[in-house]
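Take a specimen:
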Amino acid sequence: MAGTAAIYTRISKDREGRELGVQRQEADCRRLAKSLGYDSVVVFQDNDVSASTLSEKPRPEFVSMMSSAERGELAAIIAYSNSRLTRRVAEIQAIINVTKTTGIRVHTVASGQHDLDRADGRASMLTIAVWDQAEAERTSERIKAQKQQRAANGHWHGGAAPFGYRAENKRLIPNPSEVALVAEAAKRVLAGDTLHSVVTDWNARGVTTRFGKHWRQANLRSILMNRSLLGETKAGVKGWEAIIDERDFDRLHRLFSDPARKVTHSPGVKSGKYSMGGGVTVCGYCGKRLITHIRVMGGGRKRSALACLARVHGPDRAHPKGQDGRDVNRVVIDHDRLESYVFETVVAALSGDSRLSDKLSERGPDVDAQITELERQRDAVVEKQRRLNDLYLDGDVDRDYHRDTVASLKAEHAALQNQINDLLGKPLLSAAMSDGLDWKKWTADKRRSFLKAAGVTVRVFAWPEGMARNLGRRRDETAAQHAERVDAHQRAVIEKRVEIVV
């Protein structure tokens, strides 16, 4: 027969990725094409793709082959069997429709040739397709039922093992390296670190996912929210060893589900990028937190800074208007210079106090009770806000009352959460001290969590009177010498205008 024949090969599962199944199909189909006398062949291959009605995976090569057939570019379609071609009745009908308009022939190695010019041939091919489709669906139903039964009996239902485990003899066994990552992530997040901080740190350290990819926040979040970490099947039955404490898991779940985590950042850069932001540093006059932002210096240079911004905090009696119309004592300070000063001072104080290290490493029996009570109070605040929202939607309270009360409840919620974080942060601080307090290697989130756990508040006051703001370069001074003198001067200024409260 003259013309080009399309060889279509497909296999549903190719776990090793070696394509041996489709290669064997192609060899048999080529022999059939040669025996039938086709001039040439073109191969369309969908490997590791199911053709059943239950599969959502696309089959691009099948679609491409059908397009070629509809354009009249093919004289025949050759497959190993009907089921390799498709298990969908609708696709068999599409093939039949193409044969009516183009005269294309359909051949199979194992299922024979179908004379689609005749009603009996078409009926035969459709009948086989109906049974192929039913068999695929029955197989899927059987596998699903088996998985559900295994889950109900406390057994692993099959498939890829959840992160933290490996499958062994149809049971889940803790994977030590992954268990260590789960424990580290849970500990850090509960102590105040963000998921962004954890994955950034892991990626910088070269820690990869199970598949050698870099970490993303969504990946880590889904792992920490998976109840398989508690040793539970999807049916909620205990089936294997837990690798996380149930109490910690519940706290993580509440933390990730807390609407308060979805915050709108203040003007300027996100405070999460800077260790001294997030309420650690406050104005020495009004007591309000300093806001991180970017300052444009001479020559277009940009530096991160902290400032008491009127546009964020509004007017305050601690900042009256001066003769020039500007607020008095609206402080601004360079972030990086302040960070170095604060950490060097705090680390030196903590390193020389072994009693503090011992105290922080202790977690008395009353700590868990305190955390439980604070969590109860926090959850009660969330419930109050929910009820208030319902009253507002029903028209039982007006907009102003709703707005003011919600603001008060949010402040109360934040205060309770801070107390919880302080209690949870003690182990983080103790661990940091045992690591030698090498703060320069920490992420910004870890630095900020460390300061909060240590109970540090940094108060910033105005620039000291009589101290120069700018130091010009002297004639006999090199650039390096000038930079060193500026650093020393800035350090002296910071020592006078900054108060560290522990």
In short: The two ends are 91 Å apart (CA to CA). The longest strand covers residues 4-11. The longest helix spans residues 399-434.
